[in-house]
Batch of 4 targets.
Target 1
Amino acid sequence: MRVAICINTCQRPGGLKRLLDGLNQLTFHHCETPDIKVIVVDNDSSGHACEFCAEICSEFKWILKCYVEPRRGIPFARNKAITCAIAENVDFVAFIDDDEVPEPNWLDELLYVQSSYNADVVWGRILPYFAHSIPDWLAKGQFFARPRYPTGYELKSAANNNTLIRAEVFRKQDKLLDERLALSGGSDWHFFMRSQRAGHKIVWADNALVHEWIPQSRTNLKWLLQRSYRIGITESFCEIDLKPSIIIKTQCIYKGIRRVIKGILSIPLSFMVGKHQGVKTLLYIYHSLGMLAGVAGKQYEEYKEIHTL
């Protein structure tokens, strides 16, 4: 079995080193050890990540290759990684982010679940890791906790931060990740929604764990509100773009307005319960406002600035 593990990175040498160290610890029990190629795409024209990869490749457990994608933006880098992976004639493509570290059985679990459920895409679990202290309200609200499902649960979409994709999925698509979303985010969600609607099966793998390093710059109310607003934009953009109709637009508008009103009415009581609950209500409102902004065709360039780790 041939697997390409794809990593996109941009000015995160510490994060990339942690991730590659983690990949060096991968073990396999459910399946035989696959033929693994690790493909790093440096989204920085300086190519410093490739220099680092060249330095460590002789001591690395797997085949390690690095390419430069000078065009700034997540879909540019991910599409480059996919193209390079497909050129290696692999059976599966796995994606993991440069701010994450996998458990040793991470890829083994993804492959096991894929085989068990004959899935085209497998999405794994992500656990937040804080290397610094965080406010009490943020810890109590668990704002960085991700959705969780039983293993094998079928999903309507996924994200690229912990996924295994059958290579054939990419070969059958008329296009890869949408480059219109270069700096706004959401191109992975858009791609997997499109894939699922084309008949590809997406399932959850609850034991395929990666740990996500959360920088201090994100552990504040401003970042949480901006992220919630952007996700709302992505939600309505994907719905409308993949099935453009006045009915879908009307549904998004109605849902957004209804949620904004509900959120505003809930503010006093939620803050009486506690700051964490009040913040959840604010995030609900910002997400709803983002949905309305998405209907209007607005974008929020969350990744315009480079965030190092």
Target 2
Amino acid sequence: MPVLVASDLDRTLIYSAAALALTMPDARAPRLLCVEVHESRPLSYMTETAAQLLTDLGDAAVFVPTTTRTRKQYQRINLPGPQPAYAICANGGHLLVDGATDHDWHARVLARLADECAPLDEIREHLMRTADPVWVRKHRVAEDLFAYLVIERELLPDEWMKELAAWAENRGWTVSLQGRKIYAVPKPLTKSAAVHEVARRTGAELTLAAGDSLLDADLLLAADRGWRPGHGELADAKWTAPAITALPERGALAGERITREFLRAARGETPAGPPA
């Protein structure tokens, strides 16, 4: 039976220049491969070693990029290795099959959102009314499914985030702070639901996963084995679970370690160490 590998992308497998965390002396820094260009500028990277490991992984398992990015944002990423047959975008709101949107899946997601949580317009109005223009740079809606803010993080009041999280919780939504973005996402909109669907279609009996943010927690809990890097929301919260390995590496070297662990597990090799 095939092994399914579902991995978050940003700050898990790929990294912006600001998130690389290259703390070693310059002469010892790893060689990097640019995997995303936006408006003619390089945007995201992985180490060349991670790129080779990911290429090998594509031959050993069903690799499924699993991201909160919109379809348009995902499609500008050029990952090494075979083209993934499946990709999950918009936090599970869209399932791509050979690069094309699965409209039946999307319709099922919309029906569940309508039944189980407050409408997007209510969330947007609240964000517009309560978020201070002093620290908000952009208001955005992704795929008509969820909302996010681009902020100046150093100016963000902690109390505002706590109040927003409590308000959203009562309406069936969750809030996540990732870098310079605050996401408000419906609770039924999950990466894990889409991963379960891909596992059903492929017949996979072993699912591996990795992620760094609170929006990845459900994905990690749904996997047979999972990894989280030493940075991000989950690391900051010291979040873990029985089948989750908390890695010490941060930045691009964490991405390299994650791809190595994926490949080792997909090949049935002995794990590098017990879950933390």
Target 3
Amino acid sequence: MSTAPEHEVLLSDGPLTPQDVAVYRQFLEVSPDADEAAERLGIPPARFAESVGRLTDRGLLSPDGPYRHEALSPGLAALALTASAHVRVHELMRRIDSTRRELGPLGALYEGHRRRELEGTGTELLTDGAAVRRRFAELSAQVRRSVLTVHPTLGSPETLRAARELDRDLLARGVRYRTVLPHTARRQREALHHMTLLDGLGAQVRTAAVVPGRLILLDEETAVVPAGAGGAAVLRDPTVVAFLTVIFDHIWEHAEPVGAGGPGSAAGHVFEDVEAAVLRHLARGRSDDFIARKLGISTRTMRRYLAGLCEKLGVETRFQLGVAAERLGLLGDTREQDRDA
């Protein structure tokens, strides 16, 4: 015999159908008589009986004599169905808090050991993606004050979901969280969803036309930067970390905040910034693939920007586009181009 709580069985049965709602309304507002309700609604007996069964299982109907049913309060039904779930949630939260209190003090011991192992080098090399994810989760658990991140591209939906679990824990602990993503993320569905969730959790999110590379700073004491194909380096040298913090601050100050109306509500000028970056790269003879990588977009998307620029400036070729951009002063100065290189 199954020992699963009643509400779990009900949830697996799927949501109430419009027919179920119509049956409930008949019993509530018209008549408790089942035959009359079925006749008024014109529902075949077998389907009518299915609706009555679903409503009864959920505590929304109660038999009141032969062929009669009393409509009950949905609020009371919900309380009855979810009571055991609330008890289990409370127990799970208690266990989570207990586990954190028990294992938390060991974190400092573990980090101290890792620091002693690396003493004299200041650098920890991680050679593959699995090692990077595992080590970053360990480091995140030790963060006390701040997380600063710059991401030129975002991972798969699965990677983003896993990252959000770490982000949610950090923000729940009161850690200050600031992140910079490319402007083009505002037009990518998964990235837009990710930014919206981060903003809702209390993170500060900004976007920039050009994001030079991936950078993660933890408590402004530890930096994580890319190293090799899929690997990363964990840096703790105070001079290096301080320099990388200055770089982050520069990127942050030149980035556009995600507005109160959500990431998608940003003014059009953030996409004009992307177009300007495309023009500067074209002026330097960069290929479509190179520009796409720099802007964190697909080559197809980059070519759509290119086609839009040609249409906007009334030209047909790349050469004509470069001449028109130069004539209109859209390329900026040489120093600006050098920063984008």
Target 4
Amino acid sequence: MATKHSADQNSKWNAGGIGDQRGRTVVVTGANSGLGIATVDALARAGAHVVLAVRDPERGEAAARTVNGSVEVRRLDLADLASVREFAASWRGALDLLINNAGVMNIPEATTKDGFEMQFGTNHLGHFALTNLLLPHLTDRVVTVSSGAHKGPGTPRIHFENLNLTGEYSPVAAYSQSKLANLLFTLELQSRLAAAGSSVRALAAHPGWAATGLQGRDASVLRRRLMAVGNRFIAQDNKAGALPTLYAATQDLPGASYVGPDGLGEMRGAPTLVGRSAAASDPVSAVRLWAASEELTGVTFPRLESEQIQGRTPQTVSV
């Protein structure tokens, strides 16, 4: 159940404002640690039944035992489209809320089981496929976790001519591309849902700087050391970092809203609506990315009757 948004809530909002979630079913990807488990715990405590969608069920079960509420664990490897399809095919009944939280950051060059660059494949393509396959079951909203990294460093863009960044891989550039893709995906998903007359909404959120295990996998030793210092002196904990996601998941916000912390540089603070880069607001790029993602995953938007959706023209891309 969504809670009505108000300006007064913005500066003070915390997990106590989630509202009664009894009767709601939620899927959270990457749910066994960090932002994921904090998100699961808050929603389960509010009464939701939460499915921890995790790559390692044993770790997922250990995480689930720390939660006070109704939870279950199901296997999902976003770096393997067969696993994504299996997870979605096994779903029965309504799903109120899908939280696309899982991700990898600044890792050494690697590929998914299907041959995609790991950060783009996991952070974007895996969630793209999962969302579209589950969309016939969804009743309320999809929240996708992006990052301030979609704005920089540098000038992030979608490398349509080389989505896998073959021969030009940079851990930071790949991560920024994947987080930009999360926002363009949200933009186009909301456009398609609206065109189809669906009441389901697509929103995005970012945690600011939250101290999680994500930073410890950085390909650069120097960055790992700097992030360890930042985690100690600058970062929020995972519970505070999860608040923008929880706000986007439970408050009455417009489709395509983007939520982040309200503090300096959006590093920490209470959740509020935040801006995004021009590149993340480009509907032409959003349509092009959607077409590329359908081509690469073989997963399409569910066939809902809409002239506007049917009238869009895919463009060929290279990987």
